[in-house]
Design brief:
The protein has 106 residues and is mainly alpha-helical. It has 4 helices and no strands. It has 2 domains: 31 residues; 65 residues, no CATH class. It starts with a helix and ends with a helix. This is Branched-chain amino acid transport protein (AzlD).
């Protein structure tokens, strides 16, 4: 029983360590490659697109739903991003507007 437990914990530790170390090992080998440069250039937009799809997927867009908070949050996010070109600032601003309005209007 004890050996099974220690084997399971050891395996979990090894897998976790490798999953965290492999990206850094790959990055040192790919340093300066066009693949890594393109990945770094397109990753923020890809992350924003995935967040957008995930967030808007769960919204009830029916005629009786209260969607003002979601729409204004989306508008603020896009507006701040176009204005400042800062993904973190635009996500925080849009989230704050969305949460404030959906809480206030609920």
């Amino acid at each position: 029983m004890d050996s099974y437990f220690f084997a399971a914990v050891g395996t979990a530790i090894a897998v976790t360590f490798l999953l965290r170390a492999i990206p850094f090992l790959i990055k040192t080998r790919l340093y300066g490659s066009p693949l890594l440069e393109n990945f770094g250039r397109w990753m923020p937009q890809g992350a924003m697109l995935i967040l957008l799809a995930y967030c808007l997927h769960g919204v009830n867009w029916g005629p009786t739903s209260n969607k003002v908070g979601y729409l204004l949050g989306l508008i603020v996010t896009v507006g701040v991003h176009l204005w400042r070109r800062n993904a973190v600032l635009s996500i925080l601003a849009g989230t704050a507007v969305c949460v404030a309005l959906t809480t206030a209007l609920a």
